[in-house]
Specification:
The protein has 2 domains: 3-105, Response regulator (Rossmann fold, 3-Layer(aba) Sandwich), CATH 3.40.50; 115-334, 3-Layer(aba) Sandwich (Rossmann fold). Helix content is 39%, strand content 19%. It is built from 15 helices and 13 strands. It has an 8-stranded mixed sheet with strand order 8-9-7-10-6-11-12-13, with helices on both faces. Strands 2-1-3-4-5 form a 5-stranded parallel sheet, with helices on both faces.
Length: 335
């Protein structure tokens, strides 16, 4: 049981129950408020018909989130009962059926959003995409994880992870959708293997549609424990996408040229909090931090067999190595 519906009204029943069935959400319907209280706290969503709102309010159930009054043409009395119950809203059915569809889309999902980690290269070829895939692979063995490709000029994350032949929605399909996308719907629609999903493009002609990204990211965070964004250095979307990340990692080679390029990128990002992940080079950690203005949070050495692993579609973490250690440490620090 995910939805508790308390009503004796046939019209409310007919407006709500079919939508719950279409969303694949279990529903308990109760015509007796006193009996319904046994399921009050355990339901993900509580819908109280305006016909029984007064009786339910008289029982003074415990305040909880996710309570809504539903009915046809609710009056002032319904709003008074909503205040007594601590309900979040009063919904006029069936005209507000689209609202109910959106509410049902996230039934059973996590109460708080998952963590969003962005990874960007401070210089070209620094290995940001590889690190993004490594973080996603490392976390996916423990909890649902999504890695999101926002770099139109990148190699394609599904190819690096050996998922290019897996069915599922790509960016092109999501651009054509409208409205709010449920967390469960997004998680089940993208290409996925075990706990890891990937969102990228299907063809060679690629363009990042920023409004679609804005619409998709909240659903991605609600449906996954970790969302990793592979961010592009170029284009105007980087500052906005960086703002949407809980943690931002800038990957840079420890060379004078690489750190100079990274410093310019950091200046573009402004005052956003970020950590520096260093790749091999001749510049020490202290000097790298001084040049870029970022604290060094990890150093990732070269990994033997990495290119062959990526070419075979195994991803960057087929076994142990520097990437696996760095990914584990960075995830622990983010948590």
């Amino acid at each position: 049981m995910s939805v508790l519906l308390i009503t004796r009204s046939p019209s409310v029943h007919e407006a709500v129950v079919p939508l719950c069935a279409a969303a694949g959400v279990g529903t308990e319907v109760s015509a007796e408020p006193a009996l319904a209280l046994a399921s009050w706290s355990g339901a993900d969503l509580v819908l109280v018909g305006t016909d029984l709102a007064g009786e339910v309010a008289a029982l003074a159930p415990a305040r909880r989130p996710g309570v809504h009054l539903v009915g046809t043409t609710p009056d002032d009395t319904a709003f008074r009962h909503a205040v007594e119950l601590g309900a979040a809203s009063v919904v006029d059915l069936p005209s507000a059926a689209s609202w109910l569809v959106d509410a049902l889309a996230d039934v059973g999902e996590r109460a708080s959003p998952g963590r969003v980690v962005g990874v960007v290269g401070g210089a070209g070829g620094a290995g940001a995409t590889t690190l993004a895939c490594a973080l996603a692979q490392a976390h996916a063995v423990r909890a649902p994880t999504l890695v999101v490709d926002t770099d139109p000029l990148g190699p394609g994350l599904d190819r690096l992870l050996g998922m290019e032949e897996r069915p599922g929605a790509r960016w092109e399909a999501l651009v054509d959708t409208a409205g709010r996308l449920g967390a469960r719907a997004l998680r089940e629609s993208v290409p996925r293997t075990d706990g890891l999903g990937v969102l990228t493009w299907s063809g060679l002609r690629r363009r990042l549609d920023v409004p679609t990204v804005r619409r998709i990211l909240p659903s991605a965070a609600r449906g996954h424990d970790l969302v990793v964004l592979d961010l592009a250095r170029h284009g105007g979307a980087l500052p906005e996408l960086a703002d949407r990340c809980d943690d931002l990692l800038v990957v840079a080679p420890a060379t004078l040229a690489g750190l100079a390029a990274t410093a310019r990128l950091v200046a573009e990002l402004g005052e956003r909090r970020a950590g520096l992940v260093l790749r091999p080079g001749g510049v020490g950690d202290a000097d790298a931090a001084r040049v870029t203005g970022l604290p060094v949070v990890a150093a990732v050495g070269d990994q033997r067999g990495l290119a062959a692993s990526l070419d075979r579609g195994l991803g960057p973490l087929p076994g142990r190595g520097p990437l696996a250690r760095a990914a584990r440490d960075l995830l622990a620090e983010a948590a």
